[in-house]
Predict the 3D structure of the following.
Amino acid sequence: MKKSLFKVLARINKLVLPSVSKLNVNKLSKGDKVLVAYKYWVTLHVLD
């Protein structure tokens, strides 16, 4: 059940949240860094 929840979150993230793959990580604002960290956290739990 936990993995399916994270799969749903990952799909929602892909549809709603902006892509940050083309941005320079060193120049991100604090809010953008939080967004990257959240997307990373969800991705790790989907792959687990």
